[in-house]
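Lecture 7, part B: from sequences to assemblies.

Below are the input chains for today's worked example.
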Amino acid sequence: MSPLISFFTSIDPRQKTGVPLKVQLSEIDRQMRVPVIMFLCFAVLWLQIGTFFAMVSSIKLHNPEFLGDLSWLTFGRTRSAHLNSVAYGWANNAVFGVGLWIMARLCKVTVRHAGILITAGIFWNIGVAAGVFGILSGGMTSIEWLEMPMQVAPLLALSYAMIGVWGVIMFRYRALGHVYVSQWYILGGLFWFPWIYMIAQVMILWVPARGTVQAITNWWFAHNVLGLWYTPMGLAAIYYFLPKVLGRPIHSYYLSVLGFWSLALFYNWAGVHHLIGGPIPVWLISAGIVASVMMVIPAIVTAINHHMTAVGNARAVWCSPTLRFIVFGAMSYTFASLFGSAMALRDINVVTHFSQFTVGHAHHGAYAFFTMVMFGSVYFMVPRLLKREWPSAALIKVHFWGTAIGIGIMLFALHIGGWIQGEMWNELKDGAPVYSNLDVSQALVKWFLSRSFAGILLTIGHVAFLVNFVWMLAGGKSTRYKEGPTLIGDKEGSTL
Amino acid sequence: MSDHPNSDHKPDRLPNERGFDPHEEAAYADDTLHRVHQQLQREKEEPTEGFSPIPIFLLFLFGGLVFWAGIYMANNSGEFRPDIYNPEWKPGGGGNETAAAWDPIKRGDRLFRNNCAACHQADGNGVPGSFPPLASSPWVVGDEARLVKILLRGLQGPIEVMGTTYNGAMPSYGDNSGGAGWSDRDIHAIATYIRQSWGNGAPPVSEETVAAVRAEIADRDKAWTAPELLEMHPME
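Predicted structure of the full complex, as structure tokens:
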């Protein structure tokens, strides 16, 4: 056999047949341990870095002189450093870890050449670090969501290819039988993300398209990173952990199908609503608005499916660290989607566009939904990967309440403050604006302060998470099994 | 291990109690064994899906959404044209092009060919004996108020033009009874056109002049006669 063929034979990751399911899962966990734990470590690290830049940016909005003398930490750079470190650092590493692990478990297969996956993961993070460094040192591009200097893009794309391909290989060699809804979402996301990333890089930075096509591509990409990458991965995690922890099936296969295909069909169009009022053909914007409103369908379908699965198990949800975060995220997904659909309407967009309302909405989706779901997933996965229990239930509670209350205050402040901001901008008298820019900024100060306060709560939660995570890695309380899984409520028979 | 008949075995069972198994007792004391199996023990089945039908109200909701989407696209799509940028644009609105620069000669040419050329002829020379010429005619290149009055009320009876007398009827393009009701702008266009065509070199007639004349003769309804006009505006 030639070396090439023997390599392709060697990636066949199927388990030996005839082994009981739980033993198979245990074996998969063992084999996925190193790459998944590595991705989670990177993710937790980037989360702290992203939080630092977020706090600096937030404080600068009400105290502009804060760190104002350091060119590396001016607002324009810290804001973009925040976005890129949480998007490409925290969120993508979390997706790689959680998504590949769920895919492995559902396909009943594992990664044969974990060394390639680990190497690619390290290079991905080198790429992100170089990109964030490039932003801080003043080399950022002016393209939102693609601020990293364009030179890191090939590294990121290549690393991604070597990471994502393992999910596809696992699906290729999946155990025969029913393909579960989480697998659809993960497989879809694994193809959608490289497509949108490379098209956006090429059409905006490498071989720039002419004129407004760049702007259209930019918002098509920026919206789809959330919609066709983080959202399917977040939903895949909810669809996996909700029935898994509760030990009952997902309510309806038909709703799962409808939710998946309506998301795949409509989300791709929706990004253009960011260009309402812009100089592009009006039919494109109207199509974007219609697609955004049609996103009500997957939002409602998914909400019903999740609710009907979890209903009647409130106590179990409350006691399981996994489910407390996951259900918080699932509910946020519904509200964020419905808000998003409303914001695409021209009459509402005329107020919310360019205001803090949009910033609030971005955190509604990326944090209250996606990030909370990823937190919940990590709480489920790590005990199984490391065969240890979480050292501290108190720290999990601090994490949950810090992030839940923090993001709640933040969303309230940004949505209300953003609405006021938009209304003040739009207020005209005899065709001239009533409020000067200074008036608007002053009116926003109290909302910006609220956001910084919320940011402190989020930081407390993240640090609690970090401490618990490192403590667990270091092996603290590794014999806790005698007390059972770490729960955050007392319920007989609950599981993590 | 769960299918072992003694899997509910507790370690605090005494050796003489029912269900005691010395092998399991030894296993329970082994910490490693527990650590390996604890996740396995509490692991639930892999998730599956139920097959509840889709609630019927969802179908109505989605039907409504699709209907709304169709209406919205019909009203806001700009007919999918690449040159429509304005959301206020309605079908038939003719695109977003800015109003073309106003050219009275261009407009006047069109008006002349459609309304005047049948009698006065395309070359402005009229028909000898029937319709008077416009080219070089003092009635055209002379006093502008006199010309505008003819356009706004028409002319009845004999008129002498460049030594020849014509007896016919010129219809009205003003707003009297039987008039064609042209706007100031169109009267300004046609008057300017005939004053500057076929070698005529008279200055243009402004819209304001037309409006002023129109106001001045608002009380009169019937067509002019040549002597009447010559009394008001003697031939130069």
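Note for the exam: Chain B is about 40% helix and 5% strand. Keep this in mind when comparing with the next example.
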